[in-house]
Amino acid sequence: RKYEAAARALPEGVLELARGVSEAFSSSPYLTDVMDTEFFLGSNEWGVGPAHSASGRAMIANDIHLALDTPSTFYPNALQAGDINVIGMSFAGVPYVAVGRTPDLAWGATRNPMDVTDVFAEEIVVVPQALAGLATKHGDSVEWLFPVLQTWRVNRIGDGVNNSLQTIPPGGSIPQASLIVVRRNAPIIALNVQAGTALSVQYTGLNATQEIEMFRRVSRSSTIEEFRDALQWFDFGSQNWAVLDSSGDYGYFTSAELPLREDLEAGTVNGLPPFFIRDGRGGNDWIRNLNPPPGQATPNAILPFSEMPQIVNPPAGFFVNANNDPVGTTLDNNPLNQLRPSGGIFYLNVGYDGFRGERVTEMIRAKIANGEKISFEDMQQMQADTVMVDAEYFVPWIVQAFGNAGTPGAHPVLAQFAASPPIQAAVARLSSWDFSTPTGIPEGYDASDVNGQLSAPSEAEIANSVAATIYSVWRARFIANTIDTVIGAIEQAVGTGLPRPNSGSTLSSLRNFLDNWETTGGVGASGVSFFNVPGVDDAATRRDILILKSVGDAIGRITSEEFAPAFGRSTDMNDWNWGKLHRIVFDHPLGGPLSVPPAGGLVPAPLPGLPGIPTDGGFQVVDASSHDARADGVNEFMFGSGPVRRFVAEATDDGIRAETSLPGGTSGRLGSPFHLNLLPMWLTNESFPSVLRPMPSIPWLR
Fold it and tell me: What whole-number distance in Å separates Cα of residue 46 and Cα of residue 53?
């Protein structure tokens, strides 16, 4: 509502263009993951200083979350030449080591979602003398669009010739040229000449960038200062970095070039902010810098590195980043109300993740509060943690709602839930749950198993497993009965589709409602109530009814035909083991039988009629294995992304001690000794040493 007037001021037809782009991108198999707001890419990293370390030396931990495929995303790589002596992980075909260690330095990374992309609504005019015949309006001037001629080629299929290319002529969806808004180096991605409207995208990744140079320099580094200097060459793909050197210094840095917008630098927002479609007619451009300093890739003014979030040897004795807000600019739900020292708005991004970072911080603080020192093995156990942080918050609300339902004089609609034996049993399970998520089945892989060998689950693991199932299905039903029901009603009223907020935003919104119930009563800033029960006037009663109705709905789903392949429509809660829902298939690029399972029959699916390998974990746990919070089917609780590399490093008197792991082997070929050799250990959170060999004494290497 705050930006409604600015949105109406955009050129006519912008919404239709944006909707068309979204639909086209969503239908492209190459952009499926980019457009999927529930594709869970992230990472964890944290550092612990000498004051809290069992060895008295600093440590870091890192696990990078990408697609869990076969072969593994990362390729182990050790390089020794001249002054390079490094071991770690590379992407196949990319030189140097992306994350790893040298004799005296160790580092890891997490994704830092800095806003380095703006979409502009352009007003288009016909200019016959222009090269492309078109121009954009900018202020009082007209600026020609520049055409970049392109040739499109594809491989011929079936002729048996390598690199047999066929040129595809322009026509239909194949353009003859890309049109560029020159002042922004921004391609036009949607155009309606008749309406005089277009969309362009300005993006730091469209410049020639120098990340490989950063990797080269880090491979020669031995101190945090040298690492920090090397980061100046990491221009794009913003990351958070955890780093440790053998002297015991440890720290956290962010990297990449963040553009400065002219309106934000003036301390205001001109029109819509950067996370909406901006008006391309001027007043909010990226500030140009046609003479950037050495090492800078983008020809624009950028946030100085000194103002980027960073800290070395933090006073708290530890740091944590798991894609959460590094400096708190979004904690008040307003990313645009902090200022730079120069007076401009200090803007990094509109939103962050918070669940995993909250849990890691909780574990570290609990150790410190108990007077315990944190060991190398503790760091690894934290990486294997599968406690559901959102359940820690929402389960007490379920228990409270059930208690309210059982009080004398409770509203009849609410009281009926307290009288239901299945709901009584489900709430009892949740109230005694420790929020862990074991599989609860002998076929399931849990962090409590050792060296890839399965063991029978304990009674406690089975009980926690059942609670994890009940809660995870409840979560989806609670979202359906609140946020999604209201959005659906609005869609029906206005006659058009509306986007659902992604999992993290949805749960954050529900948590915000509950945290501020006394003032909001479930009504959002829009004035819309998201907790509606016909005929019930009291807001708290409506809240409790929907919470407990969602418990009943979850039980109904679990015992339904939809979930029969997992639970056989059983009403015995002891049969509702989490591992029957939470499973993974490691996809092979050639698909089908080469994926794991079945890996050509080498790894049959352990559960008849259910794809995948059952593992512990779940929504936004530290040992990343997340799924859509709206998961509502027997195969919707599966996951496909998570730790593609686990890593813990510690400073010692002899340099760096480090251990790592990979989710499977480095070969996708059946029968290769490196096909599945590392998978069992990864499934039970084991690791292997990351050891540098002595440098060879070969004169020409010096």
Answer: 13
H helix and E strand count, the chain: 18, 24
Structure tokens at 442: 């002998």
* CA-wise closest residue to 345 among 251, 275, 247: 275
Residue ranges in 176-288 assigned as alpha helix (H): 211-218, 224-231, 262-265
Single-letter residue type at 446: D
DSSP sequence for 494-506: HTS--PPP-HHHH
Q: From CA 472, how far away is CA 618, in angstroms rounded?
A: 8
Contact between 151 and 163 under an 8 Å Cβ cutoff? The reply is no
> Can you tell me whether residue 228 is helix, strand or coil?
helix
Question: Which 3 state secondary structure label does DSSP give 437?
Answer: coil
Residue type for position 314: P
CB under 8 Å to 654, separation ≥6 — which residues? Answer: none
pLDDT tens figures, 84-104: 999 999 998 889 999 999 999
Tokens describing residue 366: 């609990």
Tokens, residue 57: 């030396």
Token duo for residue 81: 């030449």
Q: What tens digit of pLDDT does each residue of 551-569 get?
A: 999 999 999 999 999 999 9
The distance from CA 44 to its chain's CA centroid, rounded to whole angstroms, is 10
Backbone angles phi, psi at 373, to 5 degrees: -90, 150
Q: Do 233 and 51 contact (CB within 8 A), yes or no?
A: no
- For the whole model, what pTM was predicted? 0.92
Structure tokens at 187: 């391609």
- Closest-CA residue to 56 (of 316, 366, 376): 376
Burial of 699 (0-12, 13-18, 19+ CB in 10 A): exposed
